[in-house]
Predict the structure.
Amino acid sequence: MSAYTVIGVGNRLRADDAIGPLLIDELKKQDLEEVELVDAGMDALGILEFLENRDKVLIIDACRMGRSPGDLVLFMANEAEVMMEPDQISLHGLGLAEALKMAGSLEMLPRVLKIIGIEPLSVELNGEISKPVKEAMTLAMDLILKEVLNSQEHRGY
Amino acid sequence: MSRDLNINVHHLTRVEGHGNIVVNMKDGVLEKAHLSIVEPPRFFEAMMKGRSFHEAAIITSRICGICSLGHQLTSLVATEDALGLEISEQTVLLRKLLVHGATLQSNILHAYFLAAPDFLNVGSVFPLIATHKDVVLRALRMKRLANDIGDVVSGRAVHPITPVPGGFSKIPEKSELLEIKRRLLEEALPDGLETIETMKALAGAIPQFERETEYISLKHPDEYALYEGDIFSSDTGAQPVQNYLDVTNEFVVKHSTSKHTKYNRSSYLVGALARWNNNHSQLGTEALAAAEAMGLKPNCHNPYMNTIAQVVEAVHCILDSVRIIDKLIENGLKNEKPNQTPTRYGRGIGSNEVPRGILFHDYTYDNKGNIVKANCIIPTGQNLANIDDDMVKLVPEIINKSKEEITLSLEMLVRAYDPCISCSVHMLEVDFVE
């Protein structure tokens, strides 16, 4: 089992929503050992199988946090209340918040579950990634690598 | 019955695209009953213009996380038709296997996570996790296997990468296919049979409502059509896919930014129920037994039974996947290179049955292999007029019920069609606990 699983969530066609998958692309170039990298795209329910039987999971997603575009926040999943959508009309209503709630009810959550939220400027369809979010990518990479590598150093303690 | 009734179910979906159920009745006269849709019209086409034939299917597969495979395969078929690219028997078999995986996944998720909560009147799947954990785990197990079929055959479950114009860029290993076969028989088949029992227990909650309409799907001479065939109307029979515009006849209505379609009547139905009605005799004995056990009969005119037809198809997909894997292995897996040398440039049309119904992609290429014109007609758009016609018949029939019951019946009706209203942004809304 990998020491850490990093999951990018989002739609590559929707401007800043692409940030999760794009960071996974960057991480794949890093030749990281014992790190499982997952581009979950838009299939939030598909995340469940990457939470189950994992020890540490880091999810990267564009999050509406009421901050400035490009702001990064690393938080434990239980530190924040993620909002469920009221939509029950289509499968698209099952998003990340619902997937995490389901994983919790099914006792599938990993021991450590952290989320890196990146405040988007735009999630317009077919839009370009915005300047503040693009600029945040370097910082986001540092943050992810620090999180993942620190965790490896402490492995076995 | 003289009654005033105003229902306005405002479904806030994701960032964009929403469906509202609107019903107005005054003095017992129905003035309005429809599903109002706001989704970004025609975004496919604008995105496709100027793209090369190598890119078309990759872009379309990313339009929607739920329907990615369907869009991708239909796009490939359209491109191959336009550029005159012949494909091998092995490619066709692998694509059919992918379609089965995608159909299994989508149908199971709809039946368990959207329809079952309705039948049990619990609002969402979440209360079911506490009371029926084994059932939820079963659904997730089936979803996972369906995903893994996608992983093995297409390289990646979410956005397939190996299906390309003219074939596959990578062929799965025999051992991987045999492992999928083992799990289909040892896990998915028992789970599928349990699913029939679960749905049988819930079938009593399916509303009794009948409205005969026109059922449109693909039809193939030798098999239950999902990947290929002619367009078949239950009213007027078969015609080639190339005539699709004569069938879809898109038109604009005031209450929806998504175009509606009609053919021989004011509306038609696509999806699992249409496929069942048109092609049920081509299913195997196990799928037919499943239909009988769950009370689904040929020529079923109850749209709520679409969910049951989906479960019947899930059984078919499990067993037919085994047959396809056997055939692939019997033929011997060949490390074929995709045929990507165009023999012509022009217009091509692709059509597949995706879980929600018949899908059309229509591309015109210039002589450099770039798209100059694209048209896509998705299943949910084709069902919208039919949903409206259902509502107009249904509301007067249930007018003696409470407003809440009527609203639930209408919501269940819309959900029975398994609509894919818009392709969402998976955006977390976060409030920090101070």
In short: Chain A has one domain: 4-153. The domain at 4-153 of chain A is CATH 3.40.50.1450 (Rossmann fold). Chain A is about 30% helix and 25% strand.
